[in-house]
């Protein structure tokens, strides 16, 4: 029987290791789909620090802290460190040890809130791609004002070929169906007009491939229609995806500032609970994080700002992707498309 | 002496011809930089309809309607019409007649709130490019929450070469200096990381050219830093620019909905004046519209939703670009860069 363990990069994230450990404990104590048995967790990082922090957390809690497996990693990648230099100079970083655990089969998934570039680089180099998959892609599910859409690739592949975009459609559809409860995912292609003839030659070719596939391809989706409910999954190159993601992130922050400013100008001092609900409306990380799809292993990348709740969500997302057999479904889908001559 | 006339496409825009004509009258009656002498205006469109509408407007006003020159155009391009088919099938559209007036030298500028694709297509095909300019680009000034940045190209050139991006930097700098009062414009390159080595090969080459130029090049600007005050002008390819523009436009609308929802949930019914100030905070058309830079003539493209005030702004922007000699400065800048071996 294959491992079903999930390696957690305890050292990654702005408030690590505290928030990552509290998040891990939350995941162990959640209910239903939000629960992960403690024996499925593998904590990766500076072991003495992890033990010490767990003890501190335990002192403030009712009931015992569950016994969690710990794997020591002597190094940690800083959030603002250059990913390429971190990959070279820190072979024993918590990120590298997580990737190693997945590579060796000791774990089946990894979750990190750390340096995104280092996680993507380390996992892309360290893990083989799934059978038939040409290039991994990062899928992010944006929940802007409650309209959920999964966008990929968000930066793993900035100069893709048409076949890569087709495979992003296939992988995104599997993810939306298995992890987001979208029964029949509609796939769109980010473009600058609705007609098939629009866009660069890359996009025209990708449009043809997506149309010839078995996917429920709804055609081109313009920037203004991303949250229009037209598609559940929108495919794009990693350059555009990265620009869009970072733009939306900063816009969300401006948006909340604007709402707060207007509320205060109107003499309203919103209570913290209302504020949280507001943040959730523009929070793209509510589903738990981004997935690096296409590699042999489940890799969930959370935002560096993740709090304990977001860490718990990310762990549960990894568990769900594993239990649903997302990667097996991706390999089957890619194999079928190849057999049918689409890609 | 060259013409200083501005041709206004009276038929373009969601509430044309009413709002375009009221906007024209507003521009004639403004003060200082917001005033355009009536003799500089050339109204282009269905002449009987224009006369009739001007009479109707005159009946509701104090004082006489100034005498404005009218040029008849027997056709009009619908907002949702395919630009390419409109270009072929409507040679006497108000857009085509405006372009013709600029081409013949009868007017020096044109302003349209009509079908953007048709305006760009018609002006690009109908007007020669400025001496030395390789490809025109669309510059849009975004005023998101008060932080102003000019972005180009927004869709005229979806597959540019590095030299095009350099020229967009040169043209954007002239525009920001002459039309937006930015004394020393800082130029950035939209990219997915700060380092010069980031991005596609197009962007790496463009980075080198911009760095070698006399521009105040501040390097790469990431999607999340677009409104961070790092650069006054940000250069990008027309595909990414178009996606970003449409995304921001839809996000602005979501943003206002979100603010209103929160205000109402808190028992506040904002008065219309507060609402207007809110809309201005996220309104990218406050400066009057987009400019198609690089063609022989000043071409201002306003948003289809423009009200009379926005039309007046667009007319005054065209007047300002003309009076400041933006196109002469662009030709000088491009010529100097060529002489110095940069492009």
Task: Provide mean pLDDT of chain A, rounded.
Answer: 91
Oligomer: homodimer
Low-confidence stretches of chain A: none
The 3D shape of chain A can be described as globular
Tally of strands of chain A: 11
Distance between the termini of chain A: 32 Å
Using CB atoms under 8 Å apart, which protein chain pair has the greatest interface? Answer: A-B, 48 and 48 residues
Radius of gyration of chain A (CA) equals: 20 Å
CATH fold node name of the largest domain in chain A: Isopropylmalate Dehydrogenase
Structural domain tally of chain A: 2
Quickly describe the structure.
By secondary structure, chain A is an alpha/beta fold. Chain A is built from eleven helices and eleven strands.
Question: What does this 3D model show about the protein?
Answer:
Two copies of one chain form a homodimer. Chain A has eleven helices and eleven strands. With 343 residues, chain A is an alpha/beta fold. An eleven-stranded mixed beta sheet of chain A has the order 3-2-1-4-11-10-5-6-9-7-8, with helices on both faces. Chains A and B meet through helix 8 and helix 9 of A and helix 8 and helix 9 of B.
Keywords:
homodimer, 343 residues, alpha/beta, Isopropylmalate Dehydrogenase, 2 domains, 11 strands
Any chance you could write out the topology, listing elements then pairs?
Two copies of one chain form a homodimer.
Chain A: E1 6-9, H1 18-29, E2 41-45, H2 47-59, E3 69-72, H3 83-89, H4 94-104, E4 109-112, H5 116-126, E5 137-142, E6 149-152, H6 162-179, E7 186-190, H7 201-212, E8 216-221, E9 233-235, H8 238-265, H9 272-281, E10 290-293, E11 298-301, H10 308-323, H11 326-339
Parallel strand pairs in A: 1-2, 1-4, 2-3, 4-11, 6-9, 7-8, 7-9
Antiparallel strand pairs in A: 5-6, 5-10, 10-11
């Amino acid at each position: 029987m294959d491992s079903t363990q999930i390696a957690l990069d305890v050292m990654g994230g702005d408030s690590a290791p505290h928030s990552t450990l509290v998040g891990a404990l939350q995941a162990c104590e959640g209910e239903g789909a939000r629960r992960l048995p403690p024996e499925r967790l593998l904590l990766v990082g500076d072991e003495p620090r992890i033990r010490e922090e767990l003890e501190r957390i335990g002192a403030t809690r009712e009931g015992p802290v569950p016994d969690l497996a710990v794997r020591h990693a002597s190094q940690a990648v800083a959030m603002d460190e250059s990913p390429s230099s971190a990959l070279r100079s820190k072979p024993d970083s918590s990120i590298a040890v997580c990737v190693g655990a997945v590579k060796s089969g000791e774990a089946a998934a990894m979750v990190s809130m750390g340096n995104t570039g280092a996680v993507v680089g380390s996992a892309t180099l360290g893990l083989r791609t799934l059978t038939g998959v040409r290039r991994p892609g990062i899928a992010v599910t944006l929940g802007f004002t409650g309209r959920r859409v999964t966008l990929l690739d968000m930066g793993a592949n900035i100069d893709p070929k048409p076949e890569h975009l087709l495979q992003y459609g296939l992988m995104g559809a599997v993810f939306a169906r298995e992890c987001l409860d979208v029964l029949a995912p509609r796939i769109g292609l980010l473009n600058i007009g609705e007609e098939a003839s629009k866009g660069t030659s890359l996009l025209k070719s990708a449009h043809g491939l997506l149309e010839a596939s078995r996917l429920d391809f709804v055609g081109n989706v313009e920037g203004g229609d991303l949250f229009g409910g037209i598609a559940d999954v929108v495919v794009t190159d990693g350059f555009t995806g990265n620009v869009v993601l970072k733009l939306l992130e900063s816009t969300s922050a401006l948006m909340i500032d604007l709402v707060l400013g207007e509320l205060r100008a109107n003499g309203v001092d919103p209570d913290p609970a209302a504020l949280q609900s507001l943040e959730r409306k523009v929070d793209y990380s509510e589903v738990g994080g981004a997935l690096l799809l296409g590699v042999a292993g489940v890799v969930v990348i959370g935002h560096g700002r993740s709090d304990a709740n977001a860490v718990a969500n990310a762990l549960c997302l990894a568990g769900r992707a594993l239990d649903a057999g997302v990667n097996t479904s991706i390999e089957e889908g890619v194999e079928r498309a190849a057999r049918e001559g689409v890609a």
